[in-house]
Automatic annotation (TrEMBL):
<dbReference type="GO" id="GO:0042744">
    <property type="term" value="P:hydrogen peroxide catabolic process"/>
</dbReference>
<protein>
    <recommendedName>
        <fullName>Peroxidase</fullName>
        <ecNumber>1.11.1.7</ecNumber>
    </recommendedName>
</protein>
<keyword id="KW-0964">Secreted</keyword>
<feature type="disulfide bond">
    <location>
        <begin position="201"/>
        <end position="233"/>
    </location>
</feature>
<keyword id="KW-0349">Heme</keyword>
<keyword id="KW-0732">Signal</keyword>
<dbReference type="InterPro" id="IPR033905">
    <property type="entry name" value="Secretory_peroxidase"/>
</dbReference>
<feature type="binding site">
    <location>
        <position position="253"/>
    </location>
    <ligand>
        <name>Ca(2+) 2</name>
    </ligand>
</feature>
<dbReference type="InterPro" id="IPR010255">
    <property type="entry name" value="Haem_peroxidase_sf"/>
</dbReference>
<dbReference type="InterPro" id="IPR019793">
    <property type="entry name" value="Peroxidases_heam-ligand_BS"/>
</dbReference>
<keyword id="KW-0575">Peroxidase</keyword>
<feature type="binding site">
    <location>
        <position position="74"/>
    </location>
    <ligand>
        <name>Ca(2+) 1</name>
    </ligand>
</feature>
<feature type="binding site">
    <location>
        <position position="69"/>
    </location>
    <ligand>
        <name>Ca(2+) 1</name>
    </ligand>
</feature>
<feature type="disulfide bond">
    <location>
        <begin position="37"/>
        <end position="116"/>
    </location>
</feature>
<keyword id="KW-0325">Glycoprotein</keyword>
<dbReference type="GO" id="GO:0046872">
    <property type="term" value="F:metal ion binding"/>
</dbReference>
<feature type="signal peptide">
    <location>
        <begin position="1"/>
        <end position="25"/>
    </location>
</feature>
Length: 329
């Protein structure tokens, strides 16, 4: 009898938890700051435009930052918090070691604070800035419902536990996304974010130099591409960088899926999208596509979903005064 009760209690708890999360996400609205900060979207866009127009790589930086924020304690800007003597924050975890672009968010927050003091959360600023940065480099746009609050907790270990590493296989990736209420389709669509940006060689050295411990490379990689990668990443140079989508890493397009079928997906997690029937079908449907419009629409839809993961709303959380520091109160 007792053995039946426990699984039932657990599943009831899970259902209630999911319902509460969905209810919170429903509280987000596009007009949330309409009265309290009417020029918010313009202030954000202007600052983001200045940075991204000058350095297009900031678009990739912000897109990854938003993803890393949402997958750890939800989209609550916990990724922006700096460590203190008593706490090692997400920002100092291994998966976040190469995050960049914090200065853009700080600049946007400073501009917003000037006009609308203590009104707009850093979580909303990160969500808006990401959308704007992607549009500045010619990517899709999407609506950003607002009203997220900032979290007061940021723990390095949680980043390690929630962010999928580049060596995950399809089953592991699907599970990591399902844990955030994202579907298999969301996984293959959002992985398309790797159409922009760079990776450090450290993220691929095992794959190209010592895949199974005998000085070999991952057979899922095109051998000619391995030679190119080895040239770009000679052994001691783990801090060198390579483009995620070669020759096209600054333009948000559908070319990422072409690289996958050519066995040039940079990470095992990219290549893994060929190993599941649903993700494989999606990849193939975009190969040699002359138009990016269906990918853009899918990407926009999935970004809206990602931006709602486990958000804090209403009286939960706070409006951080400085994005990198939890308020004192
Ligand atoms: C599916 C699981 C994913 C894995 C395993 C993964 C892993 C990685 C890794 C290892 C890097 C390179 C880090 C470095 O060495 O500097 C990277 C970069 C990047 N990722 Fe992902 N990622 C995933 C999903 C996503 C998603 C969902 C997005 C956004 C929607 C995204 C956007 C990016 C971007 C834009 C970059 C380049 C960042 C830059 O240029 O600074 N990734 N990713």
């Amino acid at each position: 009898m007792a053995t039946n009760v426990i699984p039932k209690l657990v599943s009831t708890f899970v259902v209630v938890f999911i319902l509460v999360q969905q209810a919170n996400a429903q509280n987000l609205t596009e007009g949330y700051y309409k009265k309290t900060c009417p020029s918010l979207e313009k202030i954000v866009y202007d600052v983001v435009y200045r940075y991204v127009h000058h350095v297009p790589g900031f678009a990739a930086a912000l897109l990854r930052m938003h993803f890393h924020d949402c997958f750890v304690r939800g989209c609550d800007a916990s990724v922006l918090i700096k460590s203190t003597p008593n706490n090692t924050a997400e920002r100092d975890s291994i998966p976040n070691a190469s995050l960049r672009g914090f200065e853009v968010i700080d600049a946007v927050k400073a501009a917003v604070e000037k006009k609308c003091r203590r009104t707009v959360s850093c979580a909303d600023i990160l969500a808006l800035s990401t959308r704007d940065a992607v549009t500045v480099i010619g990517g899709p746009s999407w609506p950003v419902p607002l009203g997220r609050k900032d979290g007061r907790i940021s723990v390095a270990l949680e980043a390690l536990l929630n962010l999928p590493p580049p060596f995950f296989n399809a089953t592991q990736l699907i599970a990591a996304f399902a844990a955030k209420n994202l579907t298999v389709k969301d996984l293959v669509v959002l992985s398309g974010g790797h159409t922009i940006g760079i990776s450090h060689c450290s993220s691929i050295t095992t794959r190209i130099y010592n895949f199974t411990g005998i000085g070999d490379f991952d057979p899922a990689l095109d051998p000619a591409y391995v030679r190119t990668l080895k040239r770009l990443c000679p052994p001691p140079k783990v801090n060198n960088t390579v483009e995620m989508d070669p020759k096209s890493s600054k333009s948000f397009d559908v070319n990422y899926y072409n690289t996958l079928v050519q066995n040039k997906g940079l990470f095992q997690s990219d290549a893994a999208l060929l190993n599941n029937s649903e993700t494989n079908a999606y990849v193939r449907s975009h190969v040699a596509s002359s138009s990016a419009s269906s990918f853009f629409k899918d990407f926009a839809d999935s970004m809206v979903k990602m931006g709602k993961i486990e958000v804090l709303t209403g009286s939960a959380g706070e409006i951080r005064l400085k994005c990198s520091v939890i308020n004192k109160n």
